[in-house]
Records
---
Amino acid sequence: MSELAFRGVRVAYGRGRAARFAVDGVDLTVRSGTTHGLVGESGSGKSTLARAAVGMARVADGTITLDGTDLTRRTPVRRRVQMVFQDPLAALDPRMPVGASVAEGLLATGKRLSRADREERVRGLFHRVHVDPGRAGELPASFSGGQRQRITIARALAAEPAVLIADEITSALDVSVQGVVLNLLRELKEELALTMLFISHNLAVVRYVSDEVSVMRAGRIVEQGPTGTVLADPADEYTRELLRSVPLLGQALDLEPSDAG
Amino acid sequence: MARKLTPQGIAVLLGLLVVALAVVFGDALFGEAATARNIAERQEPASLAHPFGTDDLGRDLLARVVVATRLSVLLTLGATGISVAGGVLLGVLAAVLPAAARRVAAAFIDLLLSFPWLLLALFFSVIWGATASGAMLAVGFAGVPVFARLVNTLAASVANAEYVHVARMLGSSPLRTAVRHVLPNIVPPLVVNTATHASVTLLSFAALSFLGLGVQAPEYDWGRLLNEGAQRIYLDPMAAIGPGIAIVLTGVLFALLGEVLSERGGRGQAVRAVRATTAPKPVPAAADAPVVDVAALRVAFRTADGSLVERVHGVDLHVGDGEVVGIVGESGSGKSVTAMAIAGLLGPDALVTSERLHFSGIDMTRPPGPAERRTLGLEQAMIFQDPQSSLNPALSVGLQLREASETHAGTSRQDAARRAVEKLRLVRIPEPERRVRQLPHEFSGGMRQRAMIAMGLMGSPRLIVADEPTTALDVTVQRQVLRALRDAQRATGAAILLISHDIALVSGFCDRVVVMRGGVVVEELAADRLHEARHPYTRGLIACVPDLTTDRARPLPVLEAADEELLEGVKA
Amino acid sequence: MTVAPPHPGSPRTAFVLRRLARAVVSLAVVLVATFFLVQLVPGDPVRAALGPTAPPETVEALRVQLGLDLPLGEQFTRYVGGLVTGDLGVSVTSQRPVATVLAERLPTTLLLAVLAFVVAAVGAFPIGVATAVSAYGGRRRTIDLAVSGLLGVLVAVPNFLLAVLLIAVFSVGLGALPPAGWGGPANAVLPVVALAVGPLAYLARIVHVEMLRVLATPYVTTARSKRLPPRLLYVRHALPNIVTASLTAGGVVLTGLVAGTVLVETVFVIPGIGSTIVSSIAERDYPLVQGLVLVYAALVLAANLLIDLALAVLDPRSAIAEA
């Protein structure tokens, strides 16, 4: 069991009079063993919500719980939620060999491993994300974008997370590489029964990986439900607008002005 | 990290060796010549026996300059050490203090930094007096703010780096994070700056001694020798120039050491501009010429090491009047380079060769004549990927719209301004009369892209080149921009060349799709027949992107080793 | 360049007010620092000033004259009170009021610094812009390397050394210009050149680098796509975008010039406050040192404030960006 639940979460930006809520009262549940997609445009607050879950943004109001444990307070349970970021180059220490970066993920488990065990684990993780373990001693600069992102996924997996948060992890990648990373997530989901919060601005990508989906706009969730239902029959005007905006291969774009906007 | 020594690195090493030898053995070898008084040969000008001349006690000045190396260098190192130690201490303190105290500390460092080192050094030398050790303290303390700021900035940037957040998220203790992440990323730039700062310190020290506020007789360093030499400059200019040479050379040496240590290494070699056509063809009349006519286009760039790298390997492209053509490809496919070559906007570092590279009958491989400039200025429009930077931030949107027609069509300012408002209205920018007076930063990203489109409509466009115009925008904004682009096309009949990585977008907007990969066109077909694509890359590109109908139960088809191969493509 | 009129509550007014406040706070810090300057001297400053042979009565008399016998608080009140009324104390060595010495010598130093700044600024822009335009995209590589190499060397040569070299060449060698003293325009040539060359080279390099940066931006490509004539491309599109960086560098240059007068005045024996501060430190004439340090610090703060104000007028975006 590993369920990540957001209840009435508000996150403020700025101080005093200039303060505004980037996340303004969000209720969202990532159920155990499922992938929950969170879709929204820039500034909608989706990344801030994710950062709040791993303690990188201060929660002003509400609770975030993992199987009932409150994560808004400093607790070792927090480490059971791990996050992968958009730009793998920024998320990897440029002066640390990638093997050491992945080994860093093992810290979160709290287990004391012998050097040999640690190396064995790291090698296994490299295999799991299809990167040659023989290259563990190299620096991030010598890998391609897709490989770097797979390495950061390996690091997150090393932490044996109960919930994995993927924040726009394919948006900085070329489309062909995006497919490789999405397939990897599929594999991991099947093999490890991973619970995941998958954040993206790309509705089609979110649809492909998610069991349930939430649509976020201006700090609030405007629509929520099983992926099939929400996309087939969106109740909210904004969701419909988003759907209309996704280009479909071989179909002329729908460029007529809409009411929402 | 093992790196190959550059010639510059070797020169710096040799120089340091010479200075080190002078420090260690200078006194033993030249000490006698530097102290032996010889009244018979006092105050002699430069000669073979005494290249820098002799001083008023007949001591050889060259020997004195060599012997002075030890004191000059040791005092410099001492002062640099004080600067670095004090700076690191103050910088770290300013980084770990609570927020309010941190701001005060930062403001204090700012204030100190606003004073030139000499004033600070003078201030401190009042306190510690005009002695060698006093001057060392003074110069050392005067350098503290520089390092405090450096450490503060470095620490802040590393502490905010995503990988440090990740380490914290993984439960890495503050101490471990500091040792494993912060230090390794702070120390190298600190070392580089220490070397550079040693150069400044050396000069500062020389200045203080020169002013008589540093080393006092009977001891002497280079600054003191310069001071003594300057007083007898009429008798023996070398007495002043000699120590001066020592100061400058050693200063430059330390500065170069900093450059060698820095990871940037030598500055990237600039490229030499070459433009040539293999077979110049007669230019047909512009009226019936196709909008774009390209045959066997090759574009190469000169890399840092001076070698040529070809990025476009023989592309043929044809765009007719009013045609909407999309070029699709991933990064490194050469799609943008091709478009920029057609627009004639590649920098002088690009080597363009082709059988034909024509826009409206104008040969784009040659510098355009006045009439051609006019045609290009009025008939070509560009829209780039990043709306943040494609409009000049210092000029009003209206001016940027007006200037092409004012320059090339001789339109009066009033008429151009009226036209600008009209065009902004065409791309559906609300309140265009007010908007023309605004600076670009007052526009949203989508509005800026639409303003770029409006700018292209000010002349009589035959071609609009749009290079990833919506990649940086949200999907709902993307629709508005594409709508503006379509309206523009319908209003003017201009052809459009749309560059994108998104094959679905291109298929939905264009008449014809050109698929590029690794600098070549792999396939070209009508947009509505994309599902009949034959080339495996085109089919892979279509299949590997999920859309709203993709079967979620099956893995996405993967382009053969896409990842690694693309990396190769960039290198090749 | 669009220069919008400032109005109350605008980011620019706020920026100017903030900078004014900062200058005032800085000045207060400087006041305290110069006051404590004498207190910080290890041992007895009066004894240090008069030397070990002076009789105790003389030392005591000077201590009373300087007010060093009073409690610290009272000393400070007297110090600040004196400043307000223009009383900066009396020089120990010459027995003349510090304010009089300053009034005599400050104009010379200011003239020197301003002349050098004008030379540096007027010289740097054309050189920086021309070299950047000709070097853009790797054209004329040899010229570019030669010019940037020369500028690099000129930045590295300290002004006192350059001053000595100039004297060696133009006064000793050619006998063309006076090596020392102050009076006619001929006296000013070498000191101004010695002061201006380094800052000129520094500023030219900044302009060069900034210009290259701006020429590579997409908005300059946009301007190129309009096939604008070079005048519009460089003057209208590129220049306004290097204003901020150039002005900031100009601030560094200006404060550096103010400090540089200390060395150059000493070399050329010019009776300005720069040569005076050196001799007063050597003679431990603390009232004079205090006054001079205060004036120098105030000049630096004024130069910084001036640059900030220029920034607010010429490039309002930087003010907005800060807010």
Note: Chain A has one domain: 4-250.
---
Amino acid sequence: MEAFTGKVWVLGDDIDTDIIIPTEYLALKTIDDMKQYGFSPLRPELAGQIQKGDIIVAGKNFGCGSSREQAPEIIKALGVQCVIAKSFARIFFRNSINNGLLLIEQPDLHDNVKEGDEVTVVMNEHVDHNGKQYPIASLPENLMDIIQAGGLVKAMRKLNGLD
Amino acid sequence: MGETIIEKIIRHNTGKAVKPGDIVTVNVDRVMIHDIFIPFVADKFEEMGFQKLWDPDKVVLIYDHLVPASQQDDTRHFHVGDAFAAKYGMKNVHRSDGICHQLMTEAGYVKPGNIVFGTDSHTTTYGCVGAFSSGIGYTEMASILGTGTMWIKVPETIKVVIDGELPENVMSKDIILRLIGDLRADGATYRALEFSGSTIENMSVASRMTMANMAIEAGAKCALFTPDEKTAAYCETELDEFQKSLVGDEDAVYMKTMTYKAEDFVPVMACPSQVDKIRDVSELQGETIDQVFIGSCTNGRLEDLMAAAEVLKGKKVADFVKLIVTPASRKIYRQAIELGILDTLAEAGAIITHPGCGLCCGRTGGILTDGEKVVATNNRNFLGRMGTSKVQIYLASPKTAAACAIAGKIVMPE
């Protein structure tokens, strides 16, 4: 079973899309131009500190707010490997799947983890932290299909006979 | 077995009875794309390899967040949008007519029972006429433009019943804020809200629109109101048998039912910086403010401007307060001129702006700085939404907002 390990950044409840990327930066041309402003209203220094392969652990309702798809794209562009939260907002959830950003729902990890800790994710089974296993669910089949195709764009290219 | 409204809409669309949790593919009746996301939709659409739109007449493109442009590169979005519309034969383009969610129902693009998606979270608004409408991202929008279809998970429904007569200074905004406070910001995530009861029946379509607009602030996938005679008049249509059937059945299965008495509602505000941090206005009285914003797809309609004008008639906005009024559409703007509402507001000292998203999305028209406080009638008070992250945003009804503008501090509407 696929597994990976990453260093943790801890965020709270209701991290909204205006925090992930404020509206004033949405008309910048590319995600790379925008990503330095990720999380800036809450933690202006965070975007510069995140390293490739890090993991965000958050409370409930992560990604609430607008439909801006730049939110998951920026998190992915910053190198974040996955977001583990108590729960996710629905538009953010769909946008993340469509862009190949892995999201994992886990109700208890957030209360027991601190920033800088390492966690290991064993896909569709559990998250390991400090010798303890936190169970996680498998993704529904239709979502796995999109992820396995490499995101929605690739799935549509296949449909149109391009790949 | 009975059905909820959302189950009836999906059954009608797919031809099969559904239950919560089912994953189904629906045929989309209409889509809306706004100016911020059109460049991304256009890129993804072409990257996906589509040659044509599934139905150009079902696609609506609306410029609102960036109109008129406030930053140097904003107009690029209009050029990209215009080129995309020309290339693929789209006729439904609005370049300066107002806010997307207002126009979708006002211009007749959405009918009761339709399934509609938009690249904006407040697409839930069209539930005010009994349509299933929800926000999506630009990648998903690009795939709908090519296929005309979209997968969805049939949501559970939370039923909200409100009976009785609202107190005089309470507006539908106070109801939806209270409900979001009770549900919390994630209380309706993945779920449909369904409204009923005599208070809802007696409410205007515009007031229902305010409530459907803010359903997303409790995480809801959609918010549904039963189409009635007022809906038919607003949509300039006659309801057919299917549309008339969009009532939650007695024996439908609901996740839960929330019951309210209209007489129990009071003016409330969402306090900085969470939409579910609801307090009675009476508890917040005396807090001094710097600005008031009356507008947005939540509360920028004629009845909202009229309510504000009634409060402000013959009075003056406090010296140190900027009152910014932004009608939701050109049609509303013109009606408000004709009825003398804008004159009343201007006489009281309001700054009246062009129709559009304006200050609500924090790009133009009244950006604030550290330590300042604003009472606003829009739908979000998130950190940094109207300027720096140290601006404090209080969300309220137009009546409350107008009263605060006169007093220069938070006060109860009278």
Note: Chain B has a mean pLDDT of 97.
